[in-house]
Specification:
The longest helix is centred in the first third of the chain and has 29 residues. The protein is 80% helix and 0% strand. It is globular and about 50 Å long. The two termini are 29 Å apart. 54% of the residues are buried. By secondary structure, it is mainly alpha-helical. The model has no long low-confidence stretch (mean pLDDT 82). It is built from 19 helices and no strands.
């Protein structure tokens, strides 16, 4: 079950990281600006977030498996259309449908974990899933660079289609995990999103945990331009740097499982905020000195967020006894929608994007820390959390 959840949770990462090395060259081959090519990345995050808000509540009504049976084939077909796109506008349109299909997978992953695993087992499961999905950003850019050498950027989307077919084969054997189904109509089912949002503790925690990831998603959209254009690295060397940074998403889960033996989850989350603040400070002080110092500054934020993800995800789901699909989709959508805003800001024609990332980190991490300290005294926490 953990491996299957990790596979379907990997769709967003695979759909972006696999063609990151090709972004600079795609603007030349498609005869468009770098901003338009980056837009194909941004719209994916926007529409995967929006679509998940529909898929999540529907999974409470129809079950997790049926949602995956609808979304994964859509992902496969749209990946093929991405591969054969003749201009950037066709590519962007195909990415919208691809994101809609991937949104189904994203919407139900956290819900499946809550369906199957209780309490501390849920936290450990999130840590394991985070570790497995963390492999994707590590290897995807290197694989993408290799595919580009063999074929072109179109080959990356062909690989995504094949991966989608394999995931669909796994889904066929998935046993339905949702035991409680709502008997409401479709519109009343969708309205449960607003019921969840009226839970103030849930909403505040979603904001607090989402804002610290905005600079990291902003980094993803501009990483190839910083490493390849600003620092003059090749696509292969960029993929090595990106993979070295992304490997921290693998170690974050095991590090959290080790730390929870000695410390409560709530203090661990608090310390992670200070790790994110350190990332912003390093970007503004040493980040522009070269690719290695910049990579170290970003790495501090990555490791802090990856360690905080298992307990924060579990705490968010703890705020809702019902409407698990709606809550899961809201959590994922908030993370990616705020990150998409960060991508749009960073992808503008700034003179120095590293400075923009550094300022963004400091402002947003301080905001998230303040909101977390305020909410943790008021929200419903399991006994083992504090």
């Amino acid at each position: 079950m953990v491996i299957l959840v990790a596979l379907i949770a990997s769709f967003p990462a695979l759909s972006t990281d696999l063609y990151l090395p090709a972004l600079p060259s795609m603007s030349e081959q498609l005869g468009c600006s770098a901003w338009l090519v980056t837009l194909s990345l941004v719209v994916f995050f926007i529409f995967i977030s929006i679509s998940s808000l529909f898929w999540g509540p529907l999974s409470d009504k129809y079950g997790r498996k049926r949602i995956l049976m609808a979304g994964v084939p859509l992902f496969v077909l749209s990946s093929v259309f991405c591969m054969v796109s003749q201009n950037v506008f066709q590519l962007i349109a195909a990415r919208i449908f691809q994101a809609t299909g991937a949104g189904a997978a994203m919407a139900v992953t956290m819900a499946i974990v809550k369906d199957v695993f209780p309490g501390r087992k849920r936290e450990r499961t999130f840590a394991l899933v985070s570790m497995l999905t963390g492999v994707i950003p590590v290897i995807a850019p290197s694989i993408g660079a290799f595919i580009i050498r063999l074929t072109s950027w179109r080959g990356s989307f062909g690989v995504l289609a094949v991966i989608g077919v394999l995931v669909f084969a796994f889904v066929l054997f998935l046993k339905e995990t949702s035991t409680e189904r709502t008997d409401l109509g479709i519109l009343p089912t969708m309205s449960r999103l607003f019921v969840v949002l009226r839970n103030r503790d849930f909403t505040r925690l979603v904001i607090a945990f989402s804002v610290i990831s905005i600079p990291l998603l902003g980094f993803i959209s501009t990483s190839s331009f910083i490493f390849i254009r600003q620092f003059g690295l090749s696509e292969e060397v960029f993929s090595i740097y990106f993979g070295a940074i992304a490997v921290l998403f693998i170690v974050g889960g095991p590090v959290y499982m080790f730390l929870q033996r000695f410390y409560k989850p709530a203090p661990i989350i608090t310390v992670c905020y200070f790790g994110c603040l350190l990332s912003g400070i390093l970007m503004l002080t040493v980040g522009r000195l070269g690719p290695a110092p910049f990579a170290v500054s970003i790495a501090c934020g990555y490791i802090a967020v990856s360690i905080s993800r298992p307990p924060s995800s579990s705490l968010l789901l703890e705020q809702q006894d019902r409407d698990t699909g709606s809550a899961s989709s809201l959590i994922q959508a908030a993370f990616l929608l705020t990150g998409s805003a960060g991508m749009l800001v960073v992808s503008l024609d700034w003179r120095d994007r590293i400075v923009v990332l550094g300022i963004m980190s400091l402002v947003l991490d301080l905001t998230g820390l303040a909101l977390w300290l305020y909410t943790k005294r008021r929200c419903r926490m399991p006994k083992h959390f504090v």
